[in-house]
Amino acid sequence: MKVLVINAGSSSLKYQLIDMTNEEVLAKGNCERIGIGGHITHKASTGAVFETDIDFPTHTEAFETLKTVLTSGETKVIDSLSEIYAVGHRVVHGGEKFAASARIDDKMLEVVEGLSELAPLHNPANITAIKACQKALGGGVPQVAVFDTAFHQTMPQKAYVYPLPYKYYEEDGIRRYGFHGTSHRYVSKKCAEYLGRPIEETKIVTCHLGNGSSIAAVDGGRSIDTSMGFTPLAGIIMGTRCGDIDPSIIAYLSEKYNLTASQVNDILNKESGYIGVSGVTSDDRDLRDAAAAGNKRAELAGAIQRYQIKKYIGAYAAAMGGLDAVVFTGGIGEHSPLMREEVCRNMEFLGIKIDNDKNFGASGEIVDLSTPDATVKTLVIATDEELTIARDTVEVLK
Description:
- The chain folds into two domains: 2-147, ATPase, nucleotide binding domain (Nucleotidyltransferase, domain 5, 2-Layer Sandwich); 197-381, 2-Layer Sandwich (Nucleotidyltransferase, domain 5), CATH 3.30.420.40.
- It contains 15 helices and 14 strands.
- Helix 10 (284-292) crosses helix 11 and helix 11 (296-320) crosses helix 13 (337-344).
- Strand 10 (214-219) and strand 11 form a beta hairpin.
- The protein has 398 residues and is α/β, with parallel strands linked by helices.
- The strands form two sheets. Strands 5-4-3-2-1-6-8-7 form an eight-stranded mixed β-sheet, sandwiched between helices.
- The two termini are 13 Å apart.
């Protein structure tokens, strides 16, 4: 049983083909620069690699090329497209309409399209890819949508309702939604398995840290709060996003510099965060290199990051009334031992103590950084959103 997993952007198409009998990744790759040229990087489990510039006017042409590399040449991993059991799509925003993954049909697509105003940069691209996939593979291959927001639909009202006039929630859907739900769900489940306890009996803070970052409080396997909000702009400092700020700053900047709402939004989303504070880079690795070389603003950006992560861990431990484990995942979470060291420093009062030899030598699917006397486990868990999407796709179609 083979499932094709699709994660599409407005100009990209990331994919994996997974054999669900043993959960082996048969092939993976990325079609980039769709609509502005085109480039594909494709890797097969056999070790074969195919990379070239190729014209991708739309996502449809990208899917046609994907079909070719999967079924022919050195990168061939299946004999025909009939071997693909189903397609699982990452869809960023499901609003309040979807609390779980769902099979895609015309009616469902209309609902997702109606949510595009909540995620104008993401949902239209997801819909475009779904339609292109349907055209490329035909109507006989079932397709499933797996929503970033679904896991956080268990949040109580006190966590997701903003203290604005209530009509904006009722009429416009303005509330905290949260994102990265597929990752938070995957690593919290893996954490509970590692602890050897039913997930219903655990209190876990999951830190998905990358160019976009979010932190979640997972109490009994259910998200009860998360740092991202109405959009992925909220929460902690990120590569180019500011995270939480005083909302009056928006009006202040607009009035002082005669900026439109769209221009201010661009500043907050694309010119802030690490790049805004450091003036050097939006990449965490380069940020640390610059700080080590004596760049004080790069050092400050890193300090803000670690301070904010620490605050969220403490706040969510309080919100859950206890803490069993902290999980670091995502590109930064999995690969920045210095960040983990500094976040966990002076957290003994919560029961968090890590062994730095384990921390700086961390590698593998799950790494336990905790000292023997720590009462809270600190784990590094490699996230696997694609596998979660594939598993959900099979489960929905059952």
